[in-house]
Write a structure and sequence with these properties.
heterodimer; A: about 220 residues; alpha/beta; 2 domains; eight-stranded parallel β-sheet; about 20% strand; elongated; disordered N terminus; B: about 240 residues; Rossmann fold; nine-stranded mixed β-sheet; two-stranded antiparallel sheet; 8 helices; about 40% helix
Chain lengths: ~220, ~240
């Protein structure tokens, strides 16, 4: 005799809602209550998964709770407190997989970036004093801002990862870097682009942090 | 109004379209600021993109050296053959200086004819090979040759003569290290592009460009970074 299980679930991918498949005729007398309990549990899971998909962002300067599903809103500039840029790269690659156009300005060598992260055709600009085709001078902040403006003006759904702010501060001075970040932030806002800046908060004092974070959404996370 | 583009990426927007036709424009700055290259770039690019004939008169650097320098920058003179002519008058200057050394004469009244000789030569060139754009490199050397006595009056007359030629002129000039000193030519020219070098961050030096004036044009007077990269000039904002 074939015994069918009373309930079966399918679907394991995180983004797929599990489907409940009931087998007719196999429901026992207490099956209705079971289904109800399972339904409640299922509803809670669905609420948990989809309810947190879109996180509100705080006003500039205020902390935003970080979750793996944080949404980078068009026109938004985000500062990610971190001593390494890896998590910022993960945020970027997630957006690139969704079809965004990427521009990366980083202290990492372009070969290392391409080997380490799945960035596809995103452009990589190496923040270095080395005189190479891929390098951008850390003291030519205006040229860098113009490059970003040209990129967001030419591409659809642009996302910029700006790594190495600490290096820029060393090579220039904090005031100049704050002006640079503000310029880029304005450009991002005007063009509905998105900007993510990994930054070691310990690299500047409190007043420096206040200046740098004033116009940015600070992402709060446990990185 | 017709404009000649500079073909410096981002700078024609700063100038409100370019250099107005018929203007006498000074390109002024200390050594190493790429004044000559920038001026030739205007001739070269206008010849290539607009078929505009141009003449470059060099009173200082000889033609071979200039062509080598420009060729290394991707502006091969052969690409604009028949459209841009480099007139090498550096030998004339050397001859004058030699003569001066021997004869020990050099009062302004006696030297003035050399300026007339130069003017006649340029007029002859224009007649035989008409040009719409002219570069004169450089004003200080012209002054040495001609010994402009009453400087402001003579410059006024010379700039008037350039306008009467019916072309657009770019005149290369040097500047004093003191930015507070204003020269006569700054008042007399229709336009003034000022080039400088600025040390940034303790180690780097950048070229800057600023349009101080351009008569009849609503232009920006801000300072921009001037770069020559991958075969072309471009400006970027200064932060």
């Amino acid at each position: 005799m074939r015994v069918s299980p009373p309930l079966a679930t399918t679907g394991t991918a995180l983004d797929d809602a599990p489907r409940i498949v009931a087998s007719p005729g196999a429901v026992k007398p207490h099956g209705t209550r079971r289904i109800l309990r399972f339904g409640v549990a299922f509803a809670m899971i669905v609420q948990f998964i989809f309810g947190r998909k879109k996180k509100p962002t705080s006003p500039p300067g205020k902390a935003v709770p970080m979750t793996p599903h944080i949404t980078m809103e068009p026109g938004g500039s985000y500062l990610l407190p971190s001593d390494k840029p890896d998590f910022a790269f993960k945020l970027l690659t997630r957006e690139l997989r969704k079809g965004a156009s990427g521009m990366i300005i980083t202290r990492l060598h372009p070969q290392e970036v391409r080997a380490k992260f799945d960035i596809g055709s995103a452009s990589v600009h190496w923040l270095s004093r080395a005189f190479t085709k891929d390098s951008v001078s850390p003291t030519n902040l205006g040229a860098m801002a113009d490059e970003i403006a040209a990129f967001v003006g030419k591409n659809n759904n642009p996302v910029i990862l700006l790594d190495g702010i600490e290096y820029l501060i060393v090579q220039n001075d904090l005031q100049k870097v704050v002006r640079f970040v503000s310029t880029v932030r304005d450009c991002v806002a005007m063009n509905k682009a998105r900007l993510v800046i990994p930054f070691n908060m310990q690299s500047v004092d409190e007043s420096g942090r206040a200046l740098l974070t004033r116009d940015l959404h600070v992402i709060k996370w446990n990185g | 109004m017709k404009f000649y583009r500079t073909y410096v990426q981002g700078f024609d927007e700063v100038l409100g379209g370019g250099i107005p036709k018929g203007h006498v424009v000074l390109i002024s700055g200390p050594p190493g600021t790429m004044k000559s290259s920038l001026a030739y770039n205007v001739l070269f690019q206008n010849a290539i993109h607009e078929e505009t004939p141009g003449t470059y008169i060099t009173l200082e650097q000889n033609k071979g050296s200039l062509e080598f320098q420009l060729g290394r920058m991707g502006m091969d003179a052969r690409r604009v053959e028949g459209k841009v002519e480099i007139q090498d008058l550096s030998r004339v200057r050397l001859g004058i200086e030699e003569m001066r050394g021997k004869a020990r004469f050099g009062g302004p009244a006696e030297e003035r004819p050399w300026l007339d000789v130069l003017k006649r030569h340029i007029e002859d060139v224009k007649e035989t090979q008409p040009f719409d754009l002219l570069v004169l490199d450089s004003l200080p050397v012209l002054e040495i040759i001609s010994g402009l006595g009453e400087r402001r009056i003579n410059l006024f007359q010379f700039f008037g003569w350039l306008r009467a030629l019916g072309c657009t002129s770019l005149v290369i000039s040097e500047v004093s290290p003191d930015p507070n000193i204003v020269h006569d030519e700054d008042f007399l020219a229709d336009g003034l592009l000022y080039l400088t070098m600025e040390k940034v961050g303790g180690l780097d030096v950048y070229r800057r460009i600023r349009c101080v004036k351009m008569r009849g044009v609503d232009h920006s007077t801000s300072i921009y970074t001037l770069e020559f990269k991958e075969g072309s000039f471009r400006v970027s904002q200064v932060i």
